[in-house]
Amino acid sequence: MEILPISVDTYNLGFIGAGKMAESIARGAVGSGVLPPSRIRTASHTNPARRQAFESFGVKVLAQNQDVVKETDVVIFSVKPQVVKGVVSQLRPLLTKNKLLISVAAGVKLKDLQEWAGHSRVIRVMPNTPAAVGEAASVMSMGDAATEEDGNLIAKLFGSVGKIWKADEKYFDAVTGLSGSGPAYIYLAIEALADGGVAAGLPRDLASSLASQTVLGAASMATSTGKHPGQLKDDVTSPGGTTIAGIHELEKGGFRGTLMNAVVAAAKRSKELS
């Protein structure tokens, strides 16, 4: 059967799973103008608060997952990894080749998704939690039958909640270790910087605010200037000054090696779980 193209201007988007990630993607799509809420569907959730969250910005909440699939052209599976197989298999009779299937479930491979769905018009996306504030770092990998137009549609959709890159699926465990788990490493760093500020005499509120804004500003410099982070570091580091004294302490503590080890350990765990 010929695969019909999906119109960017008229397609309906459905979510199987009404959690925080689904909400972030839906809110981003609506807020950026990529999709009006009238073209988004999700199914009712056992938690009334999740239903209300979607209805609060105009998304239609349906009674069953089957209803969502019937009314939509692009279906995002945003359920927990351990239940993806059961959910996709249950919906398989409705998952025709004219529907583009997306999975954001960590560790669930394209070959399995394609087998469970009965076709390979599938795209796997690995977003991260800053999608909630429109600053996700997402990576996508295309299934065998997903078209270039399908990829562009999904890049635009996930681009509404941050930045997205295309990569071979073989990199996804490393992606998980870096951008998937990475926000937690940065939260630890922000907390530690704030604690250092308190230890140096700052009030807690001021220390926490300065630490968060400093990390945000440094990341913005790295993404907007295009400079190598080593060069940006050198730009702040005066001979015999305060910054080099702090960097010396970080190097003595194995700061860079520890971060590298964290990414590798998380990537290894991702591979074990998948």
Key descriptive features of the protein:
elongated; ProC C-terminal domain-like fold; 2 domains; 274 residues; 12 helices; eight-stranded mixed beta sheet; alpha/beta
Sum this structure up briefly.
This protein is α/β, with parallel strands linked by helices and 274 residues long. It has 12 helices and 8 strands.
Kindly report how far apart the N and C termini lie: 32 Å
The count of helical stretches stands at: 12
Helix content: 40-55%
Radius of gyration: 21 Å
Identify the strand order in the major beta sheet.
3-2-1-4-5-6-7-8
Number of strands: 8
CATH superfamily of the largest domain: NAD(P)-binding Rossmann-like Domain
Description:
There is one protein chain. By secondary structure, the chain is of the alpha/beta class. The protein folds into two domains: 13-172, Rossmann fold; 180-273, ProC C-terminal domain-like fold. It contains twelve helices and eight strands. Strands 3-2-1-4-5-6-7-8 form an eight-stranded mixed β-sheet, with helices on both faces. Helix 1 (20-31) links the parallel strand 1 and strand 2. Helix 4 (84-91) packs parallel to helix 5 and helix 8 packs across helix 9 (204-225). The radius of gyration is 21 Å and the shape is elongated. The two termini are 32 Å apart. The model has no long low-confidence stretch (mean pLDDT 96).
Lay out the secondary structure:
Blueprint: E1 13-16, H1 20-31, E2 40-43, H2 48-55, E3 60-62, H3 65-71, E4 74-77, H4 84-91, E5 100-103, H5 110-117, E6 122-126, E7 136-142, H6 148-159, E8 162-166, H7 172-180, H8 182-199, H9 204-225, H10 229-236, H11 242-252, H12 255-273
Parallel strand pairs: 1-2, 1-4, 2-3, 4-5, 5-6, 7-8
Antiparallel strand pairs: 6-7
